[in-house]
Amino acid sequence: MPLFGPPNVAQLEAKRDVQGLIKALAYKDSSVRVAAADALGPLRDSIAVRPLTALLRDDNVEVRRAAVRALAARGGGLVIEPLIAALEDRDPGVRSTAASAVYRRLMTDPDQEARRDTAAALGRIRAADAVEPLIRAINDADESVRLASIRSLGAIGDVAAVGPLVIVLAHEQARARATGRSSLAVERAAGQALDALCDEQAIDCLKAVMGHDDSEVREIAVKRLAHMGTPAVADSLAASLDDPDPVIRRTSARGLSEIHWQPPSDQVGAKYWAALRDWRRCAACGPTAIPLLSAAFPKVDSLEQSEIIAALIAVGWEPTEADAMAAHFCVAKGDWAKCVEIGEPAVDVLDGVLRSARKWRDRVHAAVALKALGQEEVFGFGRVDLVDQALTVFEGEGTEEEKRAALQAFAVEEHLIAGSKQRLEWCECGYPSMKVVKDNERQPIPDLLGVEKLSSSAPQYFCPSCDRRQPIAA
Ligand SMILES: [Zn+2]
User: Fold this and answer.
1) How much distance in Å is there from the Cα of 447 to the middle of ligand 1?
2) Which of 184, 273, 294, 380 has the smallest number of CB atoms closer than 10 Å to its CB?
């Protein structure tokens, strides 16, 4: 190096003379310092990091920018702290050079530790303009980078991160279900970041993800909205009553109920009650409830199906097709002949009545209808044809004495009792239930009664007319 002239940076660069270039960083002419810093960048020598860092305190803006460029070219963990510090330089030009060094270079550094530490450092200084690159980094291939980015987004507190965090959380949960493997740490961090971010400012962001294709995403968003417990979420939750996913509709309705929302008596109200599966109140909203009730019908158990049919009847609905809904309708109306007309779709419905109707009289009707539909085996009766005939006499015209005589004759004819040696005994309601055999001993007549047989115990008999157990306990 000549003793009195400026250092020849081009020559030093050509010789890859790192020490010479470092020395040139201290030269009094700022253009030399800039040239030396720019020359050091591509050499990526770690020895140059400390002197380049020192140059970030240079009075000259162009020198500081050159130092930032050189450090960015070096990359890796060593340059994170100086470049993060340069984000807060007093000069906007230096800050913008530093921003592109940190967000474009360090956040995509091939070294995952450099990416992770950069993400963490951005959270520490709560760098407001780091939100976008951090959001990109929550999908980083490396889990530790994802974690650091999520935590920093929570620390920075910009609601723009809410949507992306909801999506990350949903994907992690879906991955856990699909593969049994997920990152609990990522799930927890995303949950905590959302806890920090989900206040009223976040309502619009959550509303925006309510349109996402993935129902897991929508579910998390609606839960977050419902969890806020403020009237400000009412419109967003009410809009979710239209969601294709019933779980989401229900979460919305529950959230609305918790903020004491008053459902209107219109289609929105009907959707609200349908989401809560309160079919009676749904029907109270008028004919607008009919499609909701009809759509829910095939998706619920038979008990709820009966509730839906009762609600449909209340709103004036009548079946137009010979299907299971029509069969339920006929059962509810006690129109058993119509059930038989419906045919095959009525079989399951009638079988349900036969097994669980509270009144044995309905079970008899169902059993007779099932026989008419060609079902050989009917549950709960020895001879439902005989029960039906006995009930027809019992419920028919005539005095009590005439009916008793007719039933006695019928019992003899059907060999239910042994001629004149035996006689019928009557239930409290007057229906024939027992026979008196020799020595005044009484026995139930199974073929005239409803039978309930649990595997471990003796069969129990019930009067098909009044449901009393036979024999009546003394
Ligand atoms: Zn009775």
Assistant:
1) 15
2) 184
